[in-house]
């Protein structure tokens, strides 16, 4: 099904609607005008090149951050068609692609059989949100050029400027984001782009993606990704900081006339049951969908049958549950379809029923064969699943205890929780506070109508290294589960949570950072939907204070202090380092950290679940070297918290 397509001409460029209101409502098209939306501009251009690769016409993509902060994306695909467009007589197809929303070779015609694209809005949105755009197209032996300025206004119409070197083909897009749109800044973060490009390379076997950073005083200058093993290499990468249960990565693929699937898998000795990462046409489906459903169903059935056939399970034993079998499993599911049906504009869940049938059938047959061909590995998988089942059964009592009383009517809530009076989750906030003394200050400082306070004593259990039975015996974990109210793990239901803001409030020091990381690990592993729905925040207690014209000014961290001194070079007052949360009085804590009118909350989001899995494993797992390397690489970007 993934054979190359030959037709890609002006006739294949279909128009759905004109480019309107993008600059007025940019968030509708790229999600936000903050750092996330800024980087989406790059992804939108790169996705076009990746679509060329999926169609069999591109082997190399190069992304360069230019010295002046602009971005250039080059590919060796076919080049955007340059002929006159059949619906716009005065425009070429290339000009239509850059100036008309939802115009491209993916809305009919035979230009592409499968395609991705983050929001499906096309490179025209990049044009609309940039102060300048330049496009070079090598096609038909000639090099063509056109440019735009001020949000898509034509600057130079498409024209031939010379011969294409060595008869090459391809497209180069250079753009400079508009400062008027991206008011938080137009500085690209290299680490964010590199993570995304690495994932794209994993999902497109053999595709070379090269990243260059030509700005001064930046970290990584050049990085190239190309994986001949594709998603098998992806699994090994995710498991780098974990101890593999066996050496080889399993792999299989299957296809029919309309769709195809490839799956790679490997178990590790860890206890995480949420290591399945799925993609459709190169798009991360963080909420899963039909392809994941088919894989889970078949995997549970086949492993159960194997465990019984080999006497790892006795006839009287209960069957293994899906969570038992998935404990320690890392799996990458990549499917490609002609007409993917995504739920929501961000394409986070795949709805095609047909792909479930293909994945379930392929998984059932290939996993069965793999187990028979790898008896030693199969035995370890079965034994690990049986041990997980025993732990699950042992934890059942503790699990039932968390459900016994309804949290919604106030019964069964942890004794140390100081709840808010509001019964409306949308306006209610839960502050998880480090230490009882800080909890006391927060309790006195809060707005009792909407703010609840839950003090946590010391450093909670590291759930990355603990099975569910041990986790549920931990007092602090029990308090968190009961207070939040949505359950945990497989049974977590975000519709039942009692607060739509879960705010972590810890000291601005090393111990506070460790406590935040432990809490984030617990929430990510047991209540991941909180991150997808934007419910998790980190409070920002200031580290310094100073006076300006007899008015006290609070500064969050060293970065904020340096920026303040740059803007106020003649400032003469001393900087006081603030005491811990427990030593702040209620008025100071309210003024600096909790007052909704003046506070700064850092929202913690998950762009790519597979990348977040890797980060959490490195930070909280057993591999010290991986943790050290990650911290050294990312320390300078600590203010960009986005797992």
Q: Give the amount of beta strand, in percent.
A: 15-25%
Q: Return the average pLDDT rounded to an integer.
A: 84
Distance between the termini: 35 Å
User: Tally of extended strands?
Assistant: 25
Which descriptor suits the 3D outline? flat
Could you tell me the radius of gyration in angstroms?
A: 27 Å
Output the structural class. alpha+beta
Q: Going across the biggest sheet, name each strand in turn.
A: 7-6-5-8-3-2-9-10
- Supply the CATH superfamily name of the largest domain: Histidine kinase-like ATPase, C-terminal domain
Structure description:
The protein has an eight-stranded mixed beta sheet. It is an alpha+beta fold. Helix 2 (35-54) runs parallel beside helix 5 (190-203), helix 7 packs across helix 10 (375-394) and helix 19 crosses helix 20 (624-634). It is flat. It has four domains: 10-225, Histidine kinase-like ATPase, C-terminal domain (Heat Shock Protein 90, 2-Layer Sandwich), CATH 3.30.565.10; 231-394, 2-Layer Sandwich (Ribosomal Protein S5, domain 2), CATH 3.30.230; 398-541 and 585-605, Rossmann fold (3-Layer(aba) Sandwich), CATH 3.40.50.670; 544-577. It contains 20 helices and 25 strands.
């Amino acid at each position: 099904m993934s054979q190359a397509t030959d037709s890609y001409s002006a006739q294949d460029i279909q128009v759905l609607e004109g480019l309107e209101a993008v600059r007025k409502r940019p968030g509708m098209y790229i999600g936000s005008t903050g750092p996330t939306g800024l980087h989406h501009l790059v992804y939108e251009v790169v996705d076009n090149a990746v679509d060329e690769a999926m169609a069999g016409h591109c082997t190399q993509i190069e992304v360069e951050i230019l010295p002046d902060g602009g971005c250039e994306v080059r590919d060796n695909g076919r080049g955007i068609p340059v002929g006159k467009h059949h619906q716009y007589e005065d425009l070429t197809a290339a000009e239509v692609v850059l100036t008309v929303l939802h115009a491209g070779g993916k809305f009919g015609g035979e230009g592409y059989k499968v395609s991705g694209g983050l929001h499906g809005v096309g490179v025209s949105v990049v044009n609309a949100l940039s102060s300048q755009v330049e496009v070079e197209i090598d096609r038909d032996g000639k090099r063509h050029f056109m440019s735009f300025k001020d949000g898509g206004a034509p600057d130079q119409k498409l024209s031939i400027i010379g011969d294409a070197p060595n008869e090459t083909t391809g497209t180069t897009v250079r753009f400079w984001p508009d400062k008027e749109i991206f008011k938080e800044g137009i500085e690209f973060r290299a680490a964010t782009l590199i993570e995304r490009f690495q994932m794209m390379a994993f999902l497109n076997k053999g595709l070379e993606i090269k990243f260059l950073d030509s700005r001064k005083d930046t970290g990584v200058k050049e990085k190239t990704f190309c994986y001949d093993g594709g998603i098998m290499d992806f699994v090994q990468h995710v498991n780098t900081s974990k101890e593999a249960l066996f050496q080889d990565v399993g792999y299989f693929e299957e296809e029919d006339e309309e769709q195809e699937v490839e799956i790679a898998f490997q178990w590790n000795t860890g206890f995480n049951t949420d290591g399945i990462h799925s993609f459709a046409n190169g798009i991360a489906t963080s909420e899963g969908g039909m392809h994941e459903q088919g894989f889970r169903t078949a995997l549970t059935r086949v492993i159960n049958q194997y465990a019984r056939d080999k006497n790892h399970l006795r006839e009287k034993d209960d069957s293994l549950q899906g969570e038992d079998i998935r404990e320690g499993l890392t799996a990458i599911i990549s499917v490609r379809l002609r007409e993917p049906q995504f739920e929501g504009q961000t394409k986070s869940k795949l709805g095609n029923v047909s792909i479930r049938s293909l994945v379930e059938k392929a998984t059932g047959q290939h996993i069965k064969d793999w187990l028979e061909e790898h008896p030693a590995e199969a035995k370890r998988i079965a034994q690990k699943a049986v041990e997980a089942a025993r732990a699950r059964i042992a934890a059942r009592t503790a699990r039932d205890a968390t459900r016994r009383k309804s949290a919604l009517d106030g019964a069964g809530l942890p004794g140390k929780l100081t709840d808010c009076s509001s019964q409306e989750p949308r306006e209610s906030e839960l502050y998880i506070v480090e230490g009882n003394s800080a909890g006391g200050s927060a309790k006195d400082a809060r707005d009792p109508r909407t703010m609840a306070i839950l003090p946590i004593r010391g450093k909670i259990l590291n759930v990355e290294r603990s099975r569910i039975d041990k986790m549920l015996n931990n007092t602090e974990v029990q308090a968190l589960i009961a207070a939040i109210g949505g359950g945990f793990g497989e049974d977590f239901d975000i519709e039942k949570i009692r607060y739509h803001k879960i705010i972590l409030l810890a000291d601005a020091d090393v111990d506070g950072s460790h406590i935040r990381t432990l809490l984030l690990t617990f929430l990510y592993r047991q209540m991941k939907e909180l991150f997808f729905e934007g419910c998790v925040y980190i409070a920002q207690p200031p580290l310094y204070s100073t006076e300006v014209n007899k008015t006290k000014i609070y500064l969050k961290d060293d970065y904020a202090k340096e920026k303040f001194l740059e803007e106020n070079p003649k400032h003469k007052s001393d900087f006081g380092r603030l005491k811990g949360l427990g030593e702040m009085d209620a008025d100071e804590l309210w003024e600096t950290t909790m007052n909704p009118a003046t506070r700064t909350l850092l929202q913690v989001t998950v762009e790519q679940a597979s990348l977040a899995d890797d980060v959490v494993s490195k930070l909280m797992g057993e591999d010290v070297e991986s943790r050290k390397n990650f911290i050294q690489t990312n320390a300078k970007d600590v203010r960009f918290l986005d797992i």
